[in-house]
Here is the input.
Amino acid sequence: MRRTLIRRLIRFGVSLAVLVLAAFAMIHLIPGDPVRASLGPAAPVELVEARRAALGLDRPLPEQLVTYVSGLVTGDMGTSFLTGEPVTAVIAARLPNTLTLALLATAAALLAAVPLGMWAAVRTENGRNRGTEATFGGVTSAVVAVPEFLYAIALVAVFAIGLRLLPPAGQSGPESYLLPVLALALGPAAMLARIARVETLRVLGTDYVRLARAKRLPAARLHLRHVLPNTLTATLTLGGLLLGSLIAGSVLVEYVFAWPGLGGKIVEAITQKDYPVAQGVILVYGAVVLLVNLLVDVVLGVLDPTSAIKES
Amino acid sequence: MKRTAGAAALALLAPLAASGCGAGTPEAASTSTTDTSGTFTFAIPADPGALDPAMGVLSITNTVLSVAYDTLVRSGEDGGVVPGLAEKWDVKPDSVTFTLRKDATCSDGSPVTPENVAATVNHITDPDTKSPVNGVLVPAGMKAEAGQDTVTLSTPEPFGFILESARDIFIVCGKGLEDRSLLTRGTSGSGPYVLSEAVPGDHYTFKVRRDYAWGSSGTGADLPEQVVLKVVPNEQTAANLLVAGTVNGAQFLGPDRARMESTPGVGQIVHSVGNGQFFYHQGEGRPGADPAVRKALTQALNLTELGGIASGGTGRPATGLVAEPRPCPGDTVAGHVPAFDEAAAAAALDAAGWKPGPDGIRVKDGEKLTLSLLYPTTRGPGVQAAAEYMAAAWQKAGADVKLNGALDTKLSESLNVTQDWDVVWLPITVTLPSQLVGFLSGPAAPEGANFAHLDNKRYAELVTEANGIPGEKGCELWLQAESALFENADLVPVVANTVLTATRNATFGFSGGLFDPSSFRLTQGG
Amino acid sequence: MLRTPAAIAGAALVTLMLVLAVIGPPIWGEAAARVDAGAILQGSSAAHPLGTDNLGRDLLARVLVASRYSLQLAIAAALIGAIAGIVLGALPSVLPLRAGRLVTGTVNALVAFPGLLLAMFTAVVAGLGARGAVLGIGAAIAPGFARLTQTLAASVARADYVAAARMLRVPRRRILARHVLPNIAEPLILNLTQALGGALLGLAGMSFLGLGVQPPDYDWGRLLFDGFGRIYIHPEVALGPAAAIALAGIGFNLLGDALARHAARTPAPSRAAEPRPRPVPDTEPEPGAVLDAAGLTVTFPGGVTPVREVSLTVRPGEIVGLVGESGSGKSLTAAAVGGLVPYPGTVHHERLRLCGEDMAGLSRERLGTSLAMVFQDPMASLNPALKIGGQLAEVAVVHQNATRDEARRRAVDRLGHVGLPEPGKQAGRHPHQLSGGMRQRAVIAMGLMGNPKLIIADEPTTALDVTVQRQILRLLRDVVDESGAGALFISHDIAVVGELCDRVVVMYAGRVVEELPVDRLAKDAAHPYTQALIASLPDMDTDRSLPLASIPGRQPAPAEVGFGCAFAPRCPLATARCTTDRPPLEPHGHDHRVACWEVS
Here is the structure.
């Protein structure tokens, strides 16, 4: 268990290092001069040179890397081209909003998907109710295939503009979370429901469920106490990984809802060529994803000791 | 002259937050009782960033600052200069002396003094400040000197728009002058509002100063209790918020203005906001080096149709190169741009030696008439469509047109370094005619900012003359200079793009990208 | 393959897209490019069902024409991703070990990364435009392919023929090309189909963000990008490309699902008529028996009948051994008695009684407390998520209205009863913390929580090692002796049955062929099959994991059973009559029944 954990931590460290390198490389890999690209075609030469010097782009690469990494360690990710704010402050102000959205969407997806998937599994166990199976498979497949921003727009059109039930944008009260979370959660929920169904089917086929059936337990007890906990490990693992992809996937939803999160910021940073911000946001996105994956693995090791035993 | 080039750069940076938005007071459909206890909410398209007036590089920052800071003078509705903190002024070619009003106080209660004004200006032009506004909004080398009740701004060389440049200087007073770090997340000005909460990326809340009494449109007693500037990067979202009644005002450049126009209860006002326009490359060996070719190619285009396409049907005929409200009002375009005439275009091209070749492409001295049309791909679908329309029209006239859509990176390289273009669609937004001079005359790229290699003698002469003459007489020369460009087909103004300012349950003044905060009024019902 | 409506819909959508990609540009290409300055930015009309764009061009035509470019880009991206992925995935098998590890590590790190982020990064660096987007999406697809190739290649590399090739010193590159790649081609191609759908959506997303296709080219994502700004005024201008993207995505997704399922799954059983079993002559019910079953038959759709007309009796305190090869129907018989036959199997019986009462009429509580079951694999028969004590206590809480404390006390008591050391401590543990033998004891203890009348033990010792086996058998005997319950003990091992049981029931091809007391097994076994079973055990200590190797031939599958005696093809005594007429199970001396023409 401990060895697994250490190995996992080393892997995390290596991935993080690669990520930092990639983020550093980004500003150098951009074709042409990033400063001129950012300042626009008619920027005066002095301004460009001053900006280059401020960014340290005129110094040798290794030195720049050292500066960049030591900056990261002290929480300095540079300064926004556009607003002059420290990138760290920009991210600190927005990251919580993105995380809240992603966490809520993951929770909503899990809460909807697990019961739905279990229900579908119980109904279609051993190949009965083929109609339900086909409908479930088709509908979830279709829901998964529609991009989240289309959901976002449809939800705004219906609930905010049409029915005027919910705010169309912004982060105001609890009700302002409803539409963005829903838009973000629909696709993942359908995917999780499929996974939950397959997992439930697997568990329903095990001997311990047969034994529990032999004990003639009521259906509710059988499913909630004997089946559900055993489907959760896999479902939660995927849910955790999903959280990682949701954080990145929230970009367009945040844009549609003018959500004050990182997603809106990165779209702005890329289109406005605010490279320090784009660099910082990509780094943070990547780091959060890596961290989530690490946490999922660790939590899994604690929750399900059998998996750890197997590995060691 | 290089300094002036920065103004265009700024305008290019933030196309949504155009600096010139015209003047006017939009009226809501029904004006009933005013409400002074409520909150006036306005959607801004981007985050203003750090709020230090000396460091604000974006026009959106200036929009936000205008709620809390006064200026010495402000733009009137007709483009003229009206009093602000200064009661009166005395303009000379290289200096202007303002007499300050005596009752103005800062948000921390201290009086606004001539020393405050001088400190504000001198801080910006101090090279150690590294202010991005220096040399852009504030003329480079400007010095301020405080007198008894007066303050004098002077420039090293004669500068015709020295008075107008004071419109854009936010006067810092009180504690903010001593500790500039207070200004990044707070305000220290003499305006009717003071920043009470800043949530970057989301909203900025200002609280009213009931003791404000030196506004042009009202006193603190008439104003809404709070002003919230809400960051809404997406116009669609802004439209949704306005329809839902969550915001009282927002600006629309894009297609959502149609929705605003059809929504009952929404007050509207439309301002011009910079031109859709294109340049011919006049470098040696280019087709555009020949004025006859430039005129012929311009004649081959139906500029009315092209303008409609480029602006998505919301444009107006272009009347000049400077954003409204103009310091020098007038129409420099009408009658100076070659009119649409396909036959005349063909004849002119024939006369210029470009004869139709076997494949329909005109040839001169064994060279085909090829045009590389460079345009930015980041300015919305209208510009894209305009480029395709131009290509089709010139194709018909016998030119082989290569569409060269570019992102700003590539565009800037093409303009300043590689020069691999013959025609470029390039909006340049400036607030003073003097800011254009560097682009339209002088050393050519890559050495200078004159990217199209213009060499219009008449323009250069008129501009030099005008620079030393302030006021109406100078303006007359500036206007003639612009027309000289059009007559020579150096640049072709196609359309004046417009912006719609929509309001709901509120009225306010908004001019040149700056609020008149003393005009904020909430109306009930609506 | 195209059995479900979803699969049909998927195939139809993908086909439609392919057809459009071929015929779209020649048919609507001209309309898609026609400029009309008088009709710019219009909404839906009769002339332009989806409206017009900034140049007055018809958007419906543009959507139809764009199908070709969208598909071309998706194919390019999917191919780039697949090729890069396969190369990355195959590299570790040809590179030196250390370098191979590095590649594997890189792939693992990349797989964890969200595709969109990877694609955006690559596209920004590679330059904005269709080329950058295709490379970006390719880069996003590649890690998944690499991982799949690695996994597949690793499984093939372990195969015998690859090992053989290695031993013959065939170069590793050649092994990869000749042996590994051809064998993993099919799943890779299948994955490519799914990647294609992913690439299509990914490219649409990139174009929608403005990072993909740049005008004057256009794909669906670009058309959506242009129409998106007008969505609240003329929703139809965005609806066309949005619908195209969504439908294409749905189509590829559904088709990919169907293909994957087709590759993974044997065909589902068809719904043929289910023949009702013939009525069997009524046998006398036996009063006082714990289990009294007659004419027990299990059928599955398609007429497969693995258990036929089985009659069984178990008396109190008696252990009845049910013996047979795997496939003889013994486990299904046990499941039928326990009421646990999985859907779609159906059970028919003349009589099925527990302690004289019809089982169909018994309450959940009675069944739950009086039936106890023990399965083969103790690793699998305890719920890994629940503590041992809780799993035991459950029966008492649910069926006997015991309080939690009572139930727990009883659970600890029963755990002690089955010889588990420190039962209080064990009750608080999870199954994986116990050894196999201890778990099987716990399962038996679980059966004792109620008031068991019948214990059904389905190969309870097969998965255990020999010494533990004996302990568990002894425990079963003790439990039966003590509680007076009857037990049905299912085993393929006639030696174990001989040691433990009171009576033996031998099954072959779904039927009982002989039934007799254990003490007469060696001497009086009459059926040739039973005799062969006994003869196949030279002595009691031979390896019992290879049963019945000595009898030539094999047992017919349930669907192959014909009219006569199922054992006839393997029987040394078989006559013509044996192949045409089935011998009934008839008394053969006291307490002994046989189904064989040649014996009775």
Remarks:
- The interface with chain B takes residues 35, 37, 40-41, 53-55, 128, 210, 214-216, 226, 229-233 of chain C (CB under 8 Å).
- Residues 403 and 493 of chain C are 42 Å apart (CA to CA).
- Residues 70-254 of chain C form a domain with the MetI-like fold fold (CATH 1.10.3720.10).
